[in-house]
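re the bet — no i am not wrong, look at it urself. input seq straight from the record:
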Amino acid sequence: MNIENLGEPDLHLLGLKLWIPSRQFADSTDYWDGNWVYITACCTAPFSQVYAQGTFLHLSELQHWLGQLKVLHKNSKGIAELDCMEPNLYARIELNSLGTGTLVVKLTPNHLSQKHEIEFEIDQSYLPKAIKDIETIMKAFPIRKG
């Protein structure tokens, strides 16, 4: 996969990059069908790259993670999880009382035959950009209420 052709990612958090070009069902105004988005996800670390493409992210999951990230940024400690219904993508940020901690990313193109988990050191200084990136995504793809 050549991610250079995708341009700048919509979300870039350490080794995790997400591109969201469109909704799965562009004409659907229904809450359930109208909020699935097509996504390309990439997670890179030294000597490792994992890619996945498909419609495995519902905008409600991203909105929920955004709320958790805002609380995490305010408190400088705690947990924020992107816990997707589909098993292709999962991300968890956990910060201790010093504002440092880990980002764990689980990403797979095929959950039946592959498992990939990459852990990064992170601190609270990464949160404002992640929050801004997700807010921009949510403005481009507002939640459809149906």
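see?? The domain at 3-140 is CATH 2.30.31 (Transcriptional Co-activator pc4; Chain A). told u. also The chain has a mean pLDDT of 96. so pay up
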